[in-house]
Every structure is written in structure tokens, then in C-alpha cells.
Design brief:
Blueprint: E1 13-18, H1 28-38, E2 44-47, H2 58-71, E3 77-82, H3 88-100, E4 105-109, H4 126-137, E5 142-147, H5 158-170, E6 175-180, H6 184-196, E7 203-207, H7 213-223, H8 229-238, H9 242-262, E8 267-271, H10 276-286
Parallel strand pairs: 1-2, 1-8, 2-3, 3-4, 4-5, 5-6, 6-7, 7-8
Helix pairs in contact: 4-5, 8-9, 9-10
Bound molecules: flavin-adenine dinucleotide.
Length: 290
């Protein structure tokens, strides 16, 4: 990891996403993952947060793990903050705690609705959260936000989603990280459209190596990403051979990343699924290309 606690500049950013264990599980599992990822030297590691807000304590875990990345692993930890089930007071107290622990990077999100949990009314869109953080902390945080190369599932179309994205960026976003996608053409068209819409912050491409058929079917249903036919064929052929499918998934993701790097993307954000084997194989293949 970088030692200056700042993402490296002047080359393509390469970052990881991990998730913390559930509240009743020991934190050791995620620390073992971080031990294994540390020598891969990512520019930052972002830590997801369950959308349930303070109701299920998932925000506590995110703060703990992002703080450990910063203080124990001497890297750059980014705390995801999905606001839909948080109050303003919840957010202020999280910001205070993050700052006390030296975490100055946040991925500001709306989050998904949780069944049986009524959203709090304080933040309706991620842009409300971005504006709130800027109002209360000025420039003390680097604020990242999410974007969707194929459009967000609730948006009427991609153009409408990009107009909303512009509002979010204008509220004070420094950098965007994209939803996963499997066909780079969607990302290149998105880059053109966002530039035309006046969005000029760096955009990292979110890449998820597919390692099992169920996982990918769930992700595709959740986020609406298009699965290219060539990859559907690979899934069909190797679905009952876990090792072969894992290696095919790594090869497909690596090929996607090489093409993205060739196009000069601002960054690659790898959804590691807490799997150091996959993160290592991909990192080693692309390291010299960054
Ligand atoms: P928003 O930017 O608020 O957009 C949501 C919808 O509202 C879009 O359709 C948009 O077009 C529309 N919209 C936005 N602003 C306006 C406006 N002003 N007026 C009208 N419409 C508007 N979820 C989690 O719960 N935890 C996580 O840790 C997490 N990590 C993620 C990491 C990445 C990189 C990504 C891409 C997503 C992540 N998510 C996470 C999922 C995310 O919370 C969902 O996709 C959620 O549905 C939308 O969040 P958002 O921040 O993009 O919302």
C-alpha cells in the first residue's frame, strides 16, 4: 500500500473493494484477507457497508475495518456510507469517528432499500449526503460516489441518470467508481456521455471477476449488468467445474482490464469478494501495465 496515506497520482489508480464480516462474526477473517492483500499495494481499499444503517450495526464494522486499513496496514481506507437509513446525527457521528481514526475518504451512497425498514427522511439521494458532508466538513474528506455505465436500475434511462449524476458531482464529489460491467463498450460510451454532460472528475472502472454461476446471476439481477454472449458460453460450459470457472473468470476480468488500460482509464476498482487468490492473480498480470 502507499505509505503517504494518499492515493498515488500520475498513473492509473488500482484499488480493491472488500466487505466486513457480519456483526456476530469475528473481525479476524477480514484481517486475514487484508494480510494477504497488503503486499499487492493497492492505491486504496474501500470497505462496504450494509444499507441497514445504524439499525444492524453494519456501519460500526465499516468504520473499524476502514480505520484498521489506515492505521494497522498503513494504507488508504475508504468507508462506504449508504445514507438512506441514516439520520443526520448518525452521519455526523460517523464523520467524527472516521476523522478521529484518520480516515478521510468516503464513498457517499444512497444505498438500497431494506425490506421492513422504513427509510429515514434525512437523505433522499446520494447528492444530499455529498452536500451535507461538504457543508459540515468543508474539504476535509475526499468524497467518492457511485456511477452506472448501463444506467441505474431505477432511472428512466441513461441520459436521465447522467443528469442526476451531474447534480451529485456538482455537490462536491472528487472521484467516481463505476458499477460492475462485463462489456467495456458500455463504459466507453458512458465516458463520452459524462464528458459531454460536463462531468470531469476521474471515473474508475468497477470490475468483478466472476467465479461462480449463482454469484453472477444474482449480481446481474440486482444491478442489471449485461452479460456478453461469449461469457455466457463460458459459464454454461464450466458451471459444474468450480476451478475451471474460477480460472475462466479471472482470465475474462484480466482481458477486460487490459483493454480498459489500453483506453487510458483513470482507474480500476476490483471487487475482490474478499478473495485474495483472485486479487493476486489479476494484480500480478496487470501490474506492469498500470
Ligand atoms: P443515487 O446517486 O442517489 O441514485 C439513485 C437513483 O436516484 C438513480 O436512479 C438516480 O438517477 C436517481 N437520482 C439521484 N439523484 C436524483 C435527484 N436529485 N433527483 C431525482 N433522481 C435522482 N450499497 C450499499 O448499501 N452499501 C455499499 O457499501 C455499496 N457500495 C457500492 C459501491 C459501488 C462502487 C457501487 C456502484 C454501488 C454500491 N452500492 C452499495 C449500491 C448503491 O447503494 C445502490 O446502487 C443504490 O441503489 C444507489 O446508490 P447511489 O449512491 O448511486 O444513489
Amino acid at each position: 500500500m502507499t505509505t503517504e496515506n494518499q492515493p498515488a497520482k500520475q498513473r492509473t489508480i488500482f484499488s480493491f473493494e472488500i466487505f466486513p464480516p457480519k456483526r456476530d462474526m469475528p473481525l479476524d477473517t477480514v484481517y486475514r484477507t487484508l494480510d494477504d492483500l497488503a503486499d499487492l499495494n493497492p492505491d486504496f481499499i474501500s470497505v462496504t457497508c450494509g444499507a441497514g444503517g445504524s439499525s444492524d450495526g453494519s456501519n460500526r464494522r465499516t468504520i473499524e475495518v476502514a480505520s484498521a486499513i489506515q492505521n494497522k496496514y498503513h494504507g488508504v481506507g475508504i468507508a462506504h456510507l449508504p445514507c438512506i437509513h441514516f439520520s443526520r446525527e448518525d452521519v455526523l457521528s460517523m464523520l467524527r469517528e472516521l476523522e478521529q481514526n484518520g480516515v478521510h475518504h468516503i464513498l457517499a451512497l444512497r444505498g438500497d432499500r431494506v425490506p421492513d425498514l422504513t427509510p429515514k427522511e434525512d437523505f433522499r439521494h446520494a447528492s444530499d449526503l455529498v452536500a451535507f458532508i461538504r457543508e459540515h466538513t468543508g474539504d476535509r474528506f475526499q468524497i467518492f460516489a457511485a456511477c452506472y455505465p448501463e444506467g441505474h436500475t431505477e432511472a428512466p434511462d441513461l441520459d436521465a441518470d447522467i443528469r442526476n449524476l451531474r447534480k451529485k458531482v456538482d455537490a462536491g464529489v472528487n472521484r467516481l467508481i463505476s458499477q460492475l460491467f462485463f462489456d467495456n463498450e458500455f463504459f466507453y460510451e458512458f465516458q463520452e456521455k459524462t464528458a459531454k454532460a460536463g462531468i470531469h472528475v476521474p471515473i474508475e472502472a468497477g470490475i468483478m471477476p466472476v467465479t461462480n454461476k449463482k454469484q453472477i446471476e444474482r449480481m446481474v439481477t440486482l444491478c442489471g449488468a449485461t452479460l456478453p454472449r461469449k461469457f455466457q458460453r463460458v459459464l454454461a460450459k464450466y458451471e459444474s467445474q468450480p476451478e475451471a470457472l474460477r480460472e475462466a473468470g479471472i482470465a475474462f476480468a484480466t482481458e477486460q482490464i487490459v483493454d480498459l488500460l489500453g483506453h487510458g482509464v483513470d482507474g480500476i476498482h476490483l471487487y475482490t469478494m474478499n478473495n485474495p487468490y483472485i486479487a493476486r492473480k489479476i494484480s500480478e498480470s496487470i501490474r506492469t501495465l498500470l
